[in-house]
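Archive entry: two folds, one per protein. Generate the first.
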Amino acid sequence: MAAISGKIVQHVLVAQCCQQDRQLSTQFGKDCCTPYRHTLLPYLRGKLAWNGISTMQYRTFSKFNRGIVYCNAAPSATILPSVEKGAFLKLQNGSDIRGVAVDGVEGEPVNLTEPVTEAIAAAFAAWLLDRKKSDASRRLSVSIGHDSRISAQKLQDAVSRGLAGAGVDVIQYGLATTPAMFNSTLTESKNFLCPVDGSIMITASHLPYNRNGFKFFTNAGGLGKVDIKDILERAADIYKSFTDEGLRDTERRAANSVKRVDYMTVYTSDLVEAVRKAAGHIEKPLEGFHIVVDAGNGAGGFFAGKVLEPLGAVTSGSQFLEPDGLFPNHIPNPEDKEAMKAITRAVLDNKADLGIIFDTDVDRSAAVDSSGRELNRNRLIALMSAIVLEEHPGTTIVTDSVTSDGLTAFIENKLGGRHHRFKRGYKNVIDEAIRLNSVGEESHLAIETSGHGALKENHWLDDGAYLMVKLLNKLASAKASGVGAGSKVLTDLVDGLEEPGVAVELRLKIDQNHEDLKGGSFREYGEAVLQHLMNVIDSDPKLQKAPVNYEGVRVSGYGGWFLLRLSLHDPVLPLNIEAPSSEDAVKLGLNVLSAVKEFAALDTSALNKFVLQ
């Protein structure tokens, strides 16, 4: 046996029975393997929870099986590698967990394995039990959903085992959205086993196919950075305690405690009802509208058939609605230029009134009007601000740090609201809006240029589908009142938004192996760069620092502005520049370059190229 540090555990060797399994599946709808087979959900209390299984297959299966079906292949020994606490902590991505779940990409070894996942799930259960302090008469329940990634099923099974092993009831939703998972902690429905005590969404947003991760919720909202660190520390300790007998026990527990519910039915019906209510309880308030959806092969394909069509809209021309975890058409990301080109083409080719695009797990979205004008980034924020300020005059709009000066003028001078520009990170923006309300400053909208948008009326959940419902509400109510039809009613709301002639984001990477770091961290080095830039700006009368700023160094000059900040997670200093012309943008870039050129570990090649254009 190879000298690998780790523990010996037993597992079911599925390879030897794959051919037999295929034959049995074809003949009887029967799988000879244990829940380690990733196409099979656990066999639950006499019912087979299997994606895509037909009623006929289930009936045939049930004649032959009344319990857990184990593989008849001989057990085989394998190694459960040692994973140090530091490796667990590296999986943290702000208020999420993200890692590599699929092998095959050079330089990206798998670190989100099934045993690691099982430990993380068990750690969440322990964290939840500590906070809920439930009495012994009631077991806690946790819902699990996933997006379309190819690793979703195996991670869902591993999460189920980890939760069940910790004594928690598990409810699987299958393909779902991040907003729906949070909603499941709020919904009151015995038929749908709601509300649950906690919820886990298996997703890595718009990242490549080989990545995956987790988002966690309670009825108080998404967990924060401190909670995620706590869970990962617990997971590291749990992982070390894994034994062969313990892992087998979690399989048995999962078989007895996992249920499956179609919760997306509840979630979509709530969205439909919200639009009908806004239009005066008309059954089909979107009748006559042609709206196309681009789901990017993520989890948002439901929106066309389950939301828009029941409301009366025509959805022909909608694209990439089928879940495909390889994302073959474009990155499911409303910030991505190719993705926005794809939905724009669909709108123009189909002569649609509106186009809607989602990211993979539907917590972000954007739109395109009938003329092909993109309603994302600053325009989407301006549009949502106009809608919210009609409903709540004078309210504060909280955004991330890279929003434009033109947006501030639009919100404050035209709409009569207040623009509170905060930090990057959707959780930062949402938490700041909640904080402002707690100290007496009314805020009803927290929104990022990325397309994350959360409203107070929707429990501060960043829900891309709900954001689009707010646009649909405007369309439906305008039509019902005879004000207008088509997307012009939306486009008119952002009339007067001043937009820059040039807007770029450049990424200045920090070489963590460079001797200039002198053994320090990239964060310390980045902070030194920012402090030096700030000192230089103070001595230049042509440049003015932003009077209120919460992140990095934001400076106005030459009719535009720039912001240099340190990335939340990576050894990178993103530089955003907006200006009326290329010439003015280059002047701003040259000022930054002059200030940071002495920092040898900082890769300024992208900035050099920009100023030499």
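Generate the second and append.
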Amino acid sequence: MKDSFKVCFCCVRSFKVKSSEPPEEIKTLFHDYSQNDRMSTDEMLRFVIEVQGEKHADLNYVKDIFHRLKHHGVFHPRGLHLEGFYRYLLSDFNSPLPLTREVWQDMNQPLSHYFLYTGHNSYLTGNQLNSNSSIEPIVKALRRGVRVIELDLWPNSSGKEAEVRHGGTLTSCEDLQKCLNAVKENAFQVSGYPVVLTLEDHLPPNLQKKVANMVSKTFGGTLFQCNKDEYTECFPSPETLKNKILISTKPPKEYLQTQISQGSTTDVSLSAKKVADAEEQIEDEDEETVAVEYRDLISIHAGNRKGGLKNCLNGDPNRVIRLSMSEQWLETLAKTRGPDLVKFTQRNLLRIFPKTTRFDSSNYDPLVGWIHGAQMVAFNMQSHGTFLWMMQGMFKGNGGCGYVKKPDVLLSNGPGGEIFDPCSKNLQIKTTLKVKIYTGEGWNLDFSQDHFDRYSPPDFYAKIGIAGVPLDTASDKTEIDTDEWFPIWNKEFEFPLRVPELALLCITVKDYDSNTHNDFAGQTCLPLSELKSGIRAVRLHDRAGEVYKHVRLLMRFVLEPC
């Protein structure tokens, strides 16, 4: 079979097209686990236990595999032949992650013990300067499993109603009621675990009262409310909060303090004494007169970053709080006070948001937050790129429910009371991940003939890497397989790991081009905490994270304890 490319009116380039066939190592394995070129159910059982590490497997498990292969036309009553075995290895039911979307982690711990799938400016469709606001990004995020939705609330032009918009920009506004309805209708479509609605409000007390009434009326019994003394030592658990919506924002009193503080910096005529008098008046004022309806909605209190970088991690001795900081603050603290970040997040919630100069809605490295225990690493979900792929990869874990339990290393201190420092140079290697990438297929079915190159088949190479604590982070790549729709690499990599429970395996395939940029050909990120050993079919996704129908890699994973 030949692949022909028209170069000009009178010239055609032809390339011999290889079919997708088993690599030599796969052929050898088949012969080791078969007799007379047929693999029986007993022999397949031995293979899935010894090579695939499926210790729970029994004959029913194997019979189910054989039954599924019947639909591929590669099954024989006397057992699998080589082609059938190869089709099984490349099939969807030979995934590197658990097939069932079951929540398997303990969901009865406080919220602070989990990473939450978190969005930033969830209503924006594009950039941060002049894109449209809409309910569509909110709906899409919730249906992908995102559990934290952010709305920015501002007074409308008349000052009589609240609206959703990105203040100080040319982005359009969206109706608040439509946004609340979108959350209500889609909150629990893919996960029953709680949705946190973070309200970054810039409202006076009269509009806060109106918003409180809208929220209460819209969410009704699904709205979680608690008195201020109910959860002081720790947050409730995701299991306790199933099918509930939680409101997180600053209490009204703190809103007024913020307004006064801003006024003192912008209005030079406002003296320090007047500021002090105003703050004292707030302290003395009965909270019943300060948007009490709004205050009572709040189940996760957002604290102020009092004292700047020096004191922001002191927390509140009277209750657990949610603290927000920019990626820049996080990076600074991570370099100088890493263990303090970890300690703060053992009890409190920490939300990280993108720096304000990310006008294009790009994202930052989420691992900086995660390895320090930050639960809410807020991302622009409408964007693309490596960091968003990592976010999507992390939350493939735990059945895709939007909550991933933090590893014990972030939750408990060492025998001498020492707190985990993810940037320490003294972390010991716990395990080694061996990754072998054999081949790939499906590009000829999911892409047009001239998508990668007008005059020849693609020149694919794969990049394999680990994202985790600094000492674990590494990457490597295969050779380029030239002019092949079915590349064969047979390349093995080794990654020594100190904190495998915080690591992601990141895979990207590109088409090499010596004259222009290399063309994207698929990606995926897999959480190591759920990676299955053995030879697996790894499906690739497009830039937006949508899975390709046919494109996949054949890879082998082995985790060897140190």
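Annotation attached to the second fold: DSSP finds 17 helices and 20 strands in the chain. The first helix runs from residue 24 to 32.
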